[in-house]
């Protein structure tokens, strides 16, 4: 968003418009302690943030869709009995919540530190993909979690976290939430949420994981049009819920699952993960970093969360890394298209 006024002023102005009612430029300027021209500049080009603003001469400004702002105390209320395990911070904007917590982890930040950003400007997913969000239309947050075991003992953490998301979404009423290996959450075969796990530490331990999560809550058309894959949001799935409730429930499920993962590794979660596998039994193509492609039937995951692929040459195992997975209707269809 290109503007000469500080982004903090834009956020302050938007919060004054949170109720969806008209506010005149004069009223906003008086409350903010700035000129009407400064208010006007602060509210320009909001479409790049996924925000649509009505401007009516003589009446002022009104948000077409009020922003559902995050509030720490509300999030903690929905976390429930696990709230003491988290230190939750909410900021207006961040380039990348993962980058911030990776830096904090290096200087000894505690387990449970959570950073949620109303707007993330350089969010990223696996394989360097950009995570597009609009203000209030998504949840983008990162969690720092420390483990006694080393980095080598954290195989399968990404798929495990996606399982925690599926658990939380089912609690929130999204019964058809499914998993796409390794870290994506789908609804009706469209991407609803994603996970990016970045690790620090020694092979023998201790270690730290920064767990980045992005979940689409309500995608505006201008944001959806920038995404190059099939996506959906919680609103489409019928979950018209407060972002504070969604984040609180997710954190509660993460606390429980991460404790389980620390005790049993992914092996203790394998059966449940397989039961949520969106592509189980389907013909899929696995693309490796060298661009070689392997086709077979998805046969679940191993106890280390490796993808099991039944091919014409036998059962093969693939670990996440930079691997890409996509479904194919059938080998015959693929051959015909070629």
Essential attributes:
5-stranded antiparallel sheet; 3 domains; BirA Bifunctional Protein, domain 2; 338 residues; Arc Repressor Mutant, subunit A; SH3 type barrels; disordered N terminus; alpha+beta; disordered C terminus; 7-stranded mixed sheet
Major pleated sheet: 7 strands, mixed
| CATH superfamily heading of the largest domain | Bira Bifunctional Protein, Domain 2
**Approximately how much beta-strand content do the residues carry?**
25-35%
Gap between N and C termini: 43 Å
- Helix proportion range: 25-40%
Count of discrete domains: 3
Uncertain spans: 1-5, 330-338
What name does CATH use for the topology of the largest domain? BirA Bifunctional Protein, domain 2
Helices and strands, in N-to-C order?
Answer: HHHEEHEHEEHEEEEHHHEEEEEH
Compute the number of helices: 10
List the strand order in the largest sheet: 3-4-5-9-8-7-6
CATH class of the largest domain: Alpha Beta
Task: Give the name of the CATH architecture of the largest domain.
Answer: 2-Layer Sandwich
User: Strand tally, please?
Assistant: 14
How much is the radius of gyration in Å? 22 Å
Q: Structural class, please?
A: alpha+beta
What spatial form do the alpha-carbon principal axes imply? globular
Please tell me the overall pLDDT: 89
